[in-house]
Amino acid sequence: MRSKRLLNLTVCLLFTFWVAQVDAAIFSGIITSLSESQKQVTIKSTQGKEKSFSIPDSASSTFNGKKSQFDQFKVGQRATVFTTASGTITRLSVREVLASKSSSTVSRPKKEMKAKQKTDVGTPSPLAQGWTQFRGPQRANISTEPGLIKDWNQSPPKLLWTARGLGEGYSSVSLSGNLVFTMGTKANEEVVIAIDVNTGEIVWTQPNGAIFKDGQGNGPRSTPTVDGDVLYVLGASGDLSRMSTREGNVEWTKNILQDFGASNIVWGISESPLIDGEKLICSPGGQGATMVALNKQNGSPIWKAAVPGNPKAAYSSPIKVTVGGVQQYVNFTHDGIMGVEAQTGTPLWGNNRAANKTANCSAPIFFPGSNSIFYASGYGTGGALLRLTAAQNRVSAQLGFFTPDMKNHHGGMVQVDGFLYGSSDPGVLTCINLRDGQTVWQNRSVGKGALTCADGHIYMRSEKGPIALVEVNPKSYVEKGQFDQPERSGKPAWPHPVVADGKLFLRDQDLLLCYDVKAN
After folding, report:
1. What is the distance between the alpha carbons of residues 408 and 416, in angstroms, rounded to a whole number?
2. What is the pLDDT of residues 29-48, one digit of tens each?
3. What does the pLDDT look like over 52-75, one tens digit per residue?
4. C-alpha dihedral (308, 311, 317, 318), degrees to nearest 10
């Protein structure tokens, strides 16, 4: 009886702790008034709600990521107050609304400067709406942009602007309205950064956890996911946050490694969150929580997928597919690829033929023409096609073929009309027929790198810097020109290129370069 009472007490305490964690509050907005003598700050949120806070001496205070005193804060700056469930203030984070020219600058070719004017950041741009997440619409890595330059030899892309002051990191970009979103570092924090798509000027920055550090390069690896007027960001140390797109106000934040009993992976969490309806999908790799679905409104758990073997997270990002009426989320873990049922998180199938035990990075590719999934990894491994069949809400995965010709490390792949294009280690652009697994052609192109597809062409970015335009051609390699990225950093150019709004975006550590690729 005593042990039963202790068990009930333990459960009650755990539940109380969980409720406290869920109910902990965040209030973010612009400072409208300050009282240094009383350490009181009044903040107005994006929704127009105004609230005053008395900051206790026990609360930590930071300004632009550094420990600060209250007298450093000014009206007009952005502030975020973190409180416990009982209302106790634990932290005050304050940042400049706009980056100063001393910390971040924009350079544009002189001929372009007069033509470029700053626009209303809230005005939607129809072309920009299509690339709101990592790998774009349906995460297929194919841009819907029409009317792009078809021959760079005849009409080379023009550099429109270069944004500076992004810090370290390997994040790519997403777009919504007239804003470009990426992640970087500032002071001792990872930050989310919003950039004006027309001018390259930083509109706002918002911290998102401490900087992840390792020997391959510090900072975030994930790309922000836009969902209407909010975005979801995942830092390399597992810090997951929901923010407003317009001003960067934090609506909720949590750490998926801490919340789901997981440990970080060697080179840091690299997954970009997937939004599906009211669910946010991510893969912490915890005990009984290989993948989880969260309520996107408040971050509370909906389900946890207990995949057999409890594999740790890898460096890939999930996709959603439907086979035989069964909706499922598919992702690459440390041990192999898996599919879980979308509504309940029930594990459906798994396969490890094209997995390595070091770093599985590239997102899976869905081939709807045959209800197949192709996935691949580097480190001497290769790629495999799995044929999925569904019956009575169950899905099975059978190996269709394995190929050693697609050792795709982390540059991603793309499927067009049943043909797969991707860079195979040590750096050979390769085309494979997904119907029979035959390699159609191979070319060293610009070397190992990352790619995307737009308007019938592959944009192939070498990790050493050069970018080539290659025709989507299942018969032979046809290059339509290339150029060298200027101002290369000392790190590999790993962020995936993005084509949206008639522009090509290339992130390289502290820089984001924007090129005009629209045909005249």
Report:
1. 17
2. 788 889 887 889 998 865 56
3. 999 998 888 877 656 788 888 888
4. 10
Q: What percent of the chain has pLDDT over 70?
A: 87
Long-range contacts for 108-113 (Cβ within 8 Å, ≥24 apart)?
Answer: 108/159, 108/160, 108/161, 108/162, 108/199, 108/200, 109/158, 109/159, 109/160, 112/158, 112/160, 112/161
Domains of the chain: 25-95 (2.40.50.320), 171-269 (2.40.10.480)
Average pLDDT over every residue of 425-442: 98
- C-beta of residue 300 within 8 angstroms of C-beta of residue 240: no
Asked if 453 contacts 142 with a C-beta cutoff of 8 angstroms, the reply is yes
Cβ atoms of 170 and 495 within 8 Å: the answer is: yes
Cβ contacts of residue 57 below 8 Å, gap of 6+? 39
Say if residues 270 and 246 touch (Cβ distance below 8 Å). no
Helix H or strand E segment including 20: helix 2-23
What is the distance between the alpha carbons of residues 365 and 385, in angstroms, rounded to a whole number? 9
Distances (CA, A) of 254 to 24, 132, 199, 262: 10, 22, 33, 13
- CB 253, CB 230: distance < 8 Å: no
Phi, psi of 483 (to 5 degrees): -150, 160
Question: What does the block give as tokens for 287?
Answer: 């005990």
For the sheet containing 274-276, what is the strand order? 274-276, 279-282, 291-295, 301-305
Over residues 185-221, the pLDDT tens digits come to 998 899 999 999 999 999 999 999 999 998 889 999 9
Phi/psi at 108 (nearest 5 deg)?
A: -135, 145
State the Cα angle at 47 between 45 and 49, rounded to 5°.
Answer: 55
Would the pTM count as exceeding 0.70?
yes
- pLDDT tens for each residue of 139-164: 999 999 999 999 999 999 999 999 99
| Neighbouring C-beta atoms of residue 515, cutoff 10 Å | 22
d(CA 300, CA 298): 6
Q: Is the pLDDT of residue 327 over 80?
A: yes
